What does this fold into?
Amino acid sequence: MLTPDQGRDRAAAIVSRARAAGADAADAVYAADTSLDISVRLGALEDVGRSESAELGLRVFVGKRSASVSTSDLSDDALTALVDRAIAMAREAPEDAWAGLAPAERLMHGDPPLLDLDDLAKGGSEPSPEALRDAARAAEDAARAVAGVTNSEGGSASASRSIWALATSHGFAAAYAATGYGLSASVLAGEGGAMVRDYAYSSARHRRALEAPELIGTRAGERAVARVNPGRLASGPMTVVFDPRVGSSLLGHLIGAISGQAITRKTSFLLEALGTQVFASGVTVLDDPHRPHGLRSRPFDGEGLPVSPTAIIEAGMLERWLLDSASARQLGLEPTGHAARGVSGAPGVSTSNLHMAAGHVPPETLIADITDGVFVTELIGMGVNGVTGDYSRGAAGFRIERGEITGPVAEFTIAGNLKDMFLNLTPANDLEFRYGTNVPTLRIEGMTVASG
It folds into this structure.
């Protein structure tokens, strides 16, 4: 794999070729990745996989017309053909009044912030297949040792390193490297057709930050056993409490509704909500691309703009749309540094390390006054309408009775409208930064539960 500087230079070189061949403007992405994945099942090695990839994506502009192409063939002849093909395609594309590179005066200048994303930068080495195998086996062994676990889907461990580089024809060129490590276990409990499964995993930029295999495995086993012999819920209005594992999906619906494309296309249930109260006053949602060794940290966005910590929801108020340059131009606003870019196509919008700030009470207090409710630990299906905010998803979890979490329940649906759900949401104080998007335990009043 090339170094970050070499990746940056490769992206810059293809941009220069495109300009010399007749493009009015261009940008390019170089992305490379190596990964090693090991899985075990029932104590035996099941699979070993290693992959290496490198791709180059080029976007060119001829006036207001543009085209994007990508290739994994990085030979000189292939890159020459890539440039010629991109320009020919752009000349035949329809005009787009909003297309173009990010504003030159907004580009990041100077050295990118140091985010400590590359575990190998200080002379470390990739873990051996044997070390990953042992970690995966230890996680699965711990899960299978939990009383009541009857079968296993396996344990897995992975290590990867990637390089991402961006160059533009109006003065930006930078790159960074990031490592990633993962460890998981998934097991079953119960017998025959009544078997249930659950899992646990840990992800980190630095290998030393992974949770211990024994903790991961034990958590997976205990979660599976707790779900055995689920009962059924009565249908009707109910208070719903979301486990942090699934509550983070609510922030995904928020981000989809405030992204530039949803606003410019008028396909958002929050279309008129900027500057208004959309959550309860105790709710704040933050995006922090600068968190050291964060799972989604990045030194710049997909168009070369600087990034910074941002309050998206503050005291319940919607503070901003999330805009790339094209949607910002269409709305007469400024891009927000949330552009995301792959090797093909135009930029979209993405957050980085997104989280909802912790509330003021522990989860036990949050549920203490719930006479009849449900604690959701699994969501199924994607019955969410981004235009209207209507929300309906299959779920499983545990009954809440007289302020206590009791037996498992399954095969029910929770429904509401995201506008109402956001306004009736209360966060607990148990926020942990385990994933790319993190929330504490969440309580939502007034949802409708329907038993399957």
Notes: Residues 230-452 form one domain. DSSP finds nine helices and 19 strands in the chain.
